Amino acid sequence: MTIGVALPSGDTANTVNIVDELVTQTRQAADAGLTSVWFSQQMEHDAITVAALAGRAVPGITVGTSVVPIYPRHPLLITGLAQTAQAATGGRFVLGLGTGAKNWLEPAYGIEYPSPIKHLREYLTILRQVLDGGEVDFHGETVRAHAKGFAASLSVAGSSDIPVIVAAMGRQALRVTGELADGTIPFLAGPKALSGLIVPEITKAAAGRPAPRIIAMAPIVVTDDPDAVRATVDRQYAFFRDIPSYRAVFDAQGVDSAGELVIAGDEETVAAEIRRYFDAGATEVVATQSGIRNTEERLRTWQVLGDLVQR
Hints:
This protein is α/β, with parallel strands linked by helices. The chain is built from 11 helices and 12 strands.
C-alpha cells in the first residue's frame, strides 16, 4: 500500500517554530515507514516552501502540497516555485493544486474569483506548457502568460518532471484534471464516492494518457475514543457542507457531514477501513487530522499506517 500523511495534522498549535516542527514530523513519518508527506497551504506559511525544506532535510520520502489554491497566484510564479522544490528535493516533489473556495478567497484577498472551471483549464494549460519545456504565449479569459523568446529559459536547473495533482471532485473539474493533470487528490470523498463518481469520471477523461493517480485524503486516527474524534472533526469542518463540490461527494457517499467520514478506532478497524479506499480505486491514501486530539494518537496512527505500507 502507498500511504502518506498530511501536515499540519492538528498538534502544532504550541510549537515554537512551525517550519522546524513540520520538518521534525516529516522525519517521524519517514521513520514510521510512510511513503509521502503532504503540506497544506496556510495563510501563515507557504506549502511549497515547507515541502522543499522538509524534502531536502529528510531523504527518501516524497513531499507534496495538498493543496495550493490556484487563485490569485499566477501560474508562472507557481511553476518557478515548483521547479525549485523539485530541484531541492532531488525529484521527490508533487505539486498539488486546488481551485479553492470562493467564499473564502474573495473576502480574504478582496478580489473577485473568476469562473473556477474555466480558470482551472487555462491555468493547467499554462502549467503544462512550461513544465513540458515549451514557450508560453497564452491569452485566456481568466489568465494570460507571455514568456516567448525570453533570453533565459523558464526551466530550473536540477529540476525534473513534476507530477501535477488537482483536488478535483466535481464532474467538470475531474474532466479538466483528467485531460491536463496527472491525478486527483480529493478530501472527504469516501469509498462509494470514489468508485461511483471520481474514479470513473477522471479515468474516462484521461483516456489515451497514463492512468491518473487517485490520492484519497481522509481523517484517520487510531484512538480509544473514536466518537470524540468524529465529533471534533464534525465541529471543525462543518463549513464543508455548504461547498458544492464537497456536498456532491457527501451525497455520493450517502453521508451528511465530515464526521461520518472519519476513520477512527483501534488498529484493526483503521486498517480495514483504509483497505476499502484501495478497493474503491484509490492508488494512494493520505491520512489527515491524525493529531487532531494529541501527539500520542498521531504517532500511534502513523505506526499503524507504516506497518500497512510494509505488508
